[in-house]
From TrEMBL:
The keyword rRNA-binding does not apply. Keywords: Membrane, Transmembrane, Transmembrane helix. Residues 1-11 have a biased composition (Gly residues). It is found in: Membrane. The chain crosses the membrane at residues 50-69, 105-123, 144-162, 168-188, 200-218, 230-251, 293-315. This is Nucleobase-ascorbate transporter 6.
Length: 339
């Protein structure tokens, strides 16, 4: 007989306290092929990365093209500023992806800082008979103002003060922020299109056709044409512009038309060095001015709000979990480390 009996026994162990469950990822949006949990294969990722580079190249080139001539710089100085901007943007994006918000966000230049930079140029205190010397003086003054503004943003980000503000930001408030960032590009982009309508207008039309219509007409479901719309249209329109250039379509035209339309008048390739590694204070030690620094700080607050709204939008498009205020604050801090 099996001895059964004994009743009683010890009490059952207490149930473990339920561990906190992390936020589940958001549902992947329709017509979005990849997100943080489903990255593209390496060959496609390289092509998409190059396409992002082309998009960034346009925005990064516009700012030095507009500002460097006013500073007194030529093609060589313009190429150096563009190379430095691209290098810093890539390094900043890498830091943001590893240590910041860790979102697939590309960090680039902001047009918010154009206005205070123009005020530094027009202040007159950095005038010099030598254009190159004037350019370096203005660059040093701009560096000093940016250092002060960036230091303030780093303190706001890493101290956690900015998270107290981001608690009140919702997707409803982020949409106008991101929209205003995009609308701000129109005043810089469309005047450039008007300078050479025969090239700018076909680019816009082809971009709409490739991204909105062609994908539904040819092999629907593959998403090749809309996914690489910028890559296709830039290549096609550049070949078209080069054919117009070598065909003599702009011979005898005014200098402004040739500078805007010809593919051999930018002067950036001839002015750029084959290998250029930017380094801190390459234009000399920064100079500091209270008025210039204050104006740049005001612009940095605007860029701070824009970046926060962009991070919220990127998180949603990437199907990421809702960003906690602390992560947004940390991302802002890392964004201005090497600004």
């Amino acid at each position: 007989m099996a001895g059964g009996g004994g009743g009683g026994g010890g009490a059952a162990p207490a149930a473990k306290a339920s561990e906190p469950v992390p936020h589940p990822p958001k549902d992947q949006l329709p017509n979005v092929s990849y997100c943080i949990t489903s990255p593209p294969p390496w060959p496609e990722a390289i092509l998409l990365g190059f396409q992002h580079y082309l998009v960034m190249l346009g925005t990064i080139v516009i700012i030095p093209t507009a500002l460097v001539p006013q500073m007194g710089g030529g093609n060589e100085e313009k190429a150096q500023v563009i190379q430095t901007s691209l290098f810093v943007a890539g390094l900043n994006t890498l830091l943001q992806s590893i240590f910041g918000t860790r979102l697939p966000a590309v960090i680039g230049g902001s047009y918010t800082f154009v206005a205070p930079t123009i005020s530094i140029i027009l202040s007159g205190q950095w005038n010099d008979e030598d254009p190159v010397s004037k350019f370096k003086k203005i660059m040093r003054a701009t560096q000093g103002a940016l250092i002060v503004a960036s230091t303030l943003q780093i303190v706001l980000g890493f101290s956690g003060l900015w998270r107290n503000v981001t608690r009140f930001l919702s997707p409803l408030s982020a949409v106008p922020l991101v929209s205003l960032v995009g609308f701000g590009l129109y005043e810089f982009g469309f005047p450039g299109v008007a300078k050479c309508v025969e090239i700018g207008l076909p680019e816009l039309v082809l971009l709409v056709i490739f991204s909105q219509y062609l994908a539904h007409l040819i092999r629907p479901g593959k998403n090749i044409f809309d996914r690489f719309a910028v890559l296709f249209t830039v290549i096609i329109v550049w070949i078209y512009a080069h054919l117009l250039t070598v065909g003599g379509a702009y011979n005898g035209k005014p200098p402004k038309t040739q500078a805007s339309c010809r593919t051999d008048r930018a002067g950036l390739i001839s002015g750029a060095q084959w290998i250029s590694i930017p380094y801190p204070f390459q234009w000399g030690p920064p100079s500091f001015n209270a008025g210039e620094a204050f104006a740049m700080m005001m612009a940095s607050f605007v860029a701070l709000v824009e970046s926060t709204g962009a991070f919220i939008a990127v998180a949603r498009y990437a199907s990421a979990t809702p960003l906690p205020p602390s992560i947004l604050s940390r991302g802002v801090g890392w964004q201005y480390i090497i600004y």
